Amino acid sequence: PLDYEDKNLQKFDLKVRVQDPDPTHVDYCTIAITVTDYNDNSPVFTPDRHELTIPENHTMSTIFTFTVSDADSGNNQIVNFMIERKSNPKKQFSVKKVGTDAVISIRKTLDREDIPSYELIILGVDEGNPPQTGTATLTVNLSDVNDNYPIFKEDYRPIIMENSPPKKDFQLIRAKDMDNDKNGPPFTFTYTCDGSNYNLCKDFAMTFDKDAQVGKISSLRIFDREVKKYYDMPIEMADNGEPQMTGINYLRIEIGDVNDNKHGPGAKEILVYNYKGHFGNFPIGRVHCEDLDDWDNADKTYTFLGNVTLAGYFKLLTNGTIIMTKGVPEKEYFFQASVYDKIFKNTEICNVTVKIISLSEEAVRRSGSTRFKDVTPSEFIEEGPNGSAYNKFKNQLATILGVPFENVDVFSLMENEKGYTDVRYSAHNSPWYTPGMTNGAVAVNRAKIATEVGYQIDMVDINECIDEYCDAGGCTNKLIIKDTPVLINSSSTGMVGVNTRVEADCICGARDFSQPVQCTPDYCYNGGVCEKDYFQVVKCICPPGFTGPRCQVTGISFEEKGYALFSPLEQCENSRTSLEFATLQDGLLFYNGPVTNKPDNSERDFILLELINGYPQLKIDHGTGELTLSLNGKDKSNKLIINKVSDGKWHRVDIIRNKQEVRLILDHCFDAKADDRSPCEVKGTTPEENIYLNTVDPLQIGGIYMGMSSINYPNFAFDSFLGCIKNFIHNSQIYDLQVSRRDSFSKNAKVGCSRTEEHCLDKCSGNSTCIADFSGNYQCVCNAGYQGKICDKKTTIKDFKSNSFITWEFKNSFYNVMNDFKNEMQVSFRTRETNGLLFKVPSSNPNDFMQLEIINKKACLGYNFGQTSSLHHLCLDYVDVNDGQWHTLKMKRVKEEIQLMMDGGEGRFYADTFVKTFKTLTFTPNKVDFAAGAEITIQNAITRIKGKDFKDSCMDDIRYDDAWLPMQQSETNSEAATVKLIRNVADDCIRDDCKGVTCGVLQTCIPLFGKYSCICNKGYKKSLSKCVDIDECQDPKCFGNATCLNTNGSFKCQCPKYWTGELCNLANPSPVIGNNTLATGALVTILVCIFIILIIVLLVLLFKRNKKAGDKFVLEVDSDDDIRENVISYDEEGAGEEDQLAYDISRLRKAEPTLKPVIDKPVRSYNPDGDRPEVGSYIDNLIKEADNDDVAPPYDSVREFVYEGADSDVGSLSSLNTSSGSEGDNDYDALNEWGPKFAKLADMYGGGGE
User: Fold this and answer.
1) What span, in angstroms and rounded, lies between the C-alpha atoms of 305 and 317?
2) What is the CA radius of gyration of the chain?
3) What distances in angstroms separate CA 844 from CA 807, 825, 946, 963, one per listed residue?
4) Is 832 found in the same domain as 748?
5) How far is CA 699 from the centre of its chain?
6) Number of other CB atoms surrounding residue 1023 within 10 Å
7) Edge-to-edge strand order for the sheet containing 44-46?
8) How far is CA 654 from the centre of its chain?
9) Domain co-membership, 586 together with 720
10) Mean pLDDT in each 10-residue stretch from start to end of the chain (1250 residues)?
11) What domain range includes position 188?
């Protein structure tokens, strides 16, 4: 066999002799054969295995070097190195390429007591295709250094009961040393009882038996638990190592409780977050009475005091445990308990308040999280003299977010393995804030919150991927929610929260499409409603103006010293981050990295994109060193090709990361000349082997909140950005750029871009997106299904039958200005076919083409741009498109880069690739015979279908280079093309799928474009081919002891006595249980008092009614109704007119602002800036605005008119034409300013009679 690595087999000269039947007809030729290299050899390490021993305190330096070779050539012998992550779990070692060698070094401090030995797997991967991998093993053993002092051998927990006499040797203690025996025993114990905080010499004593290596602890007096519960006894221990290590261990001694104090009245407040109504029939806490003793619950008996309703909601066990029944309505409840102590034979009444808050799944899914250090959940909710940390934290959230206290839910407190508390919270002002918003607000106010709450914050936005233990793909934090509650109990407070935790999943979450799209509560943003239609297609129904496919805000603008905070970039080994910006000056575009100073030897992953001298500059650190990539617009010959991009126009930056390789691309590199991308693209490799960008702090766009001088790494050139940013996309996920007017998670930032939007006013219809730059240049980009200069005309829908197609011819005016470096194709379609051609554009080169098509239910772009293979495909592999629903498929190509998008182009609806070519890619389409509906061939001027018939399907709005193509020959207004030929294509897209269909009993026919479905009516389910009633009573829905009765299509709850409501969970007036019923005399007294109060109220009302009209002012109205100071009363004509509520309706009028078309930002009507008021507050604010508007008529004045009629404070409109009184000459022309109806009055009364 041939082998390139054998130099004797790399070239061959074959001499060929050819001869025909005539032996004199002979000729010779020589064929030179050159064997090229194939990557068939793996890198080889020398040696392939090595073992060494180093001290555990070894300096961070090189410890070994492997020599590496690869028998292949070219790229096939270029080898890159990394250490297998599982063999280097804490990333304490690194590998660096020096020449062709692999140099192993120590990156972080080692500790033999933590990991005594390492077996590092060194990987060498060459750059061949396919790549080959070689391995080597380096075993590193750590020798001991005496760096630990002795500690207790066990976790001793001694207890001395209070009131008991002194006891000798009640606890024996021993020691152990984490170092080896050479640096361990014999030990020495010393009792240092005279500490600075408390003198323990009179409390406890210790004797040390050196031979037995035992310390003996004795008590010296009688103790009282109510005076002090715990004593920390300092024991100094020293080892026998060199140098000797000495340290103090504290032995905690607890004083046991004896029931020697009477209990008194007390109160317990319990907060229950009832997640989706699932919680019930479980303990929610225990009754609390004031008692100095705390171990005497066995001596107490608890009895419930309350009415039947409360007894149905809550059960009280004799040990004081409170059980909440499932289905208790959201409300605050109060009841009491009688508590009897058998030792002291006394009974006290103790109060219990239970507040139940219903918590939706959306609130949990949209929650933020913070980890507090050195505090347990019980300590977090415990009420102190200044309140609880829980309420302080909740109050801080409400303040910084600018929402009412009751709009904040802190619903989960979970203790982790470090003894820290993970707090999860959500907030809303209709709708819920996103996690990026709430976490961003906490991050900005981190120091203030920690000071107020009293505990240090370890982490905002809990990240379990921080240790980077995943080998490949990425790492995603997944929120796990359980339906089981978590009880947190302290003495006077209790909380029932949601059981949550964050787990690290070794996948790139943004590209994990293993599960179908579902309508989860957090799928849509900004009040969008998730809908899964009968076609099983999931989509978001968005409020007006939200342009993202999931109702995201896609644009944002910044003023000086502004910023906006969002969720950090997800951890993936291969990532693409892109954004568009428009500005006139340099600044910081985005930053994701540390917000506080970190030690030099700690990992400080970050990514920073700035605009410097008019061009993008990227800094990135994967935790092993910084890489800087800069552009300056110049080519390899130092000639300026691309002008500065701080020019007020929209520009795009793409950051593409493939493990350690990083690329920075400006504007798809469109303006670069052939074969030289250096003016617009630069690439580099991050140092050493780390492949992940591991950031835990918020993503900051448009600036940094902490200031440039507050951290020493990285080095910032700017701290803010003045301009606009839109379409921030990370791994095909579109960021929701929602911001707030408050400084909670954004500052000097606004939704949209006013500098460009002002040029879009009244330019485009509402069926489009207006894109403008700072100079006023604009373009109307039509939504799918619309065409025309301002997108005001609907496109034509066509039904493609069997053997159907449409062909076009480009117009000269359009064809002659095409750009060969970029192309766009778009088509809207609906089908049930699994294969078919949508739209094909051949090239003037016979072998080149582009075609949108369906292959095995997937939307694909087929193409060939002169490559050796005749056909390549880029497909959306995770979406089936033959579901009968409408889809819009779009392709964009700029030189070698191709993007394929469908239905908004997010997540699984997006794919991209870079075509590998030996030259800059160009494509010139044919001027004629590009087609839709089938693959065609033309022979002898006759067009025939070659294959890929897109039959029984519909298409709409076919575009090339964003120019609409006509769908019938009568449409001549297309700027791009004319229809050349149409075959077997019908108008519209009508399917009467349910015609003639008879569904079974209790079923309804649903048309599904070429299919139909007989679905069961509500309350019924399919069983084989029939619909049967759902027995709702199998899953009990009725409350308490109510009886569930199944009915056809529904159910009914039969309520017991004292209960009512659909689920029997509402109480009727019910008797009281226990000993707190009112006596008959007390009831009579209460009734008499109520009767006397009613008489007094009636007399007051009669007195006010009979008050003379002359004693009142004309403008006097009831204070509860007087909401405007310019209300004018007029006398009524006729008798008996008693309309006392004459208000000026113009109080609700206000001059309308100029309306803007739908552009890149949400319209004002939805208030999409993050501060969404409640409806009542919203209306009240409108009224206040109208009240305080000095410009809007009617203008404030006080006028008194002549009274007509008797005893009427309200005048009639006829008074306007009355000449008596002090205001005889009235200017009725002023009424013309009030609108057409008042203009009529001005004409009637001002222009008329004598």
Assistant:
1) 12
2) 40
3) 16, 17, 19, 20
4) no
5) 12
6) 10
7) 44-46, 62-69, 101-106, 93-98
8) 22
9) yes
10) 77 87 88 84 94 93 94 88 87 90 92 94 89 94 94 95 95 95 93 73 93 95 94 94 93 95 94 91 93 93 89 92 92 94 95 94 94 94 92 94 93 92 91 89 92 93 83 86 92 94 90 90 91 92 90 94 92 92 96 84 85 96 91 93 95 94 94 85 88 89 87 90 96 91 83 92 92 94 94 95 94 93 95 96 87 96 78 93 96 93 94 82 89 90 89 96 94 93 93 91 92 91 87 82 86 86 78 49 68 84 60 44 45 41 41 38 39 52 58 46 41 40 45 54 49
11) 151-256
Distance of CA 1193 to the CA centre of its chain: 46
Place of tokens 């240090």: 456
DSSP codes, 83-104 = E-GGGSTT--EEEEEETTEEEE
Sign of the four-CA dihedral 729, 730, 731, 734: negative
1173 within 8 A of 1181, measured Cβ to Cβ: yes
Q: Residue 918: left if φ>0, alpha if ψ -120 to 50, beta else—which one?
A: alpha
Q: State whether 587 and 733 are in the same domain.
A: yes
Regarding whether 721 and 695 lie in a shared domain, the answer is: yes
- % helix / strand / coil in the chain, to the nearest 5? 15, 40, 50
CA distance 1096 to 217: 77
Domain count, the chain: 6
Classify the phi-psi angles of 741: left when phi > 0, otherwise alpha if psi is within -120 to 50, otherwise beta.
Answer: alpha
CA distance 31 to 22: 24
C-alpha pair distances (Å), 644 with each of 312, 629, 640, 678, 721: 74, 16, 10, 15, 16
Q: What count of Cα atoms within 13 Å lies in the side-chain half-sphere of residue 879?
A: 24
Q: Residue 534 and residue 549: Cα distance in Å, rounded?
A: 19
Q: Do 672 and 581 share a structural domain?
A: yes
Can you tell me the distance from the alpha carbon of 1078 to that of 1097, in angstroms, rounded to the nearest whole number?
Answer: 27
Question: Strand 49-55 vs strand 133-143: parallel, antiparallel, or unpaired?
Answer: parallel
Which domain-ending residue is among 91, 125, 143? Answer: 143
- Please state whether beta strands 723-730 and 574-583 pair in parallel, antiparallel, or not at all (unpaired): antiparallel
Q: Is the dihedral of CA 728, 734, 740, 746 positive or negative?
A: negative
Q: What angle do CA 1130, 1132, 1133 make, to 5 degrees?
A: 140
Question: Beta-carbon neighbour count of residue 28 at 10 Å?
Answer: 9
User: Using an 8 Å Cβ cutoff, are 109 and 601 in contact?
Assistant: yes
Domain for residue 2, yes or no? no
> Is residue 315 one of the residues assigned to a domain?
yes
* Model pTM score: 0.77
For the chain, give the number of residues: 1250
Side-chain half-sphere exposure of 681, counting CA atoms within 13 A? 19
Q: For residue 403, what are its two tokens? A: 């929402």
In a domain, 1086, yes or no: no
CATH number of domain containing 462: 3.30.70.2470
Cα distances (angstroms) measured from residue 899 to each of 120, 733, 956, 965 = 41, 14, 21, 21
Q: Which two tokens stand for residue 1096?
A: 């007094």
Question: Torsions phi, psi of 935, nearest 5?
Answer: -85, 125
Amino acid letter, residue 919: K
CA distance 542 to 974: 31
Same domain, 283 and 134: no
Within a domain: residue 134? yes
Longest dimension (CA), the chain: 144
CATH of the domain at 194: 2.60.40.60
Same domain for 714 and 570:
yes
Task: State whether 593 and 479 are in the same domain.
Answer: no
**Signed CA dihedral, 501, 506, 511, 515: sign only:** negative
What is the Cα–Cα distance from 1070 to 311, expressed in whole angstroms? 11
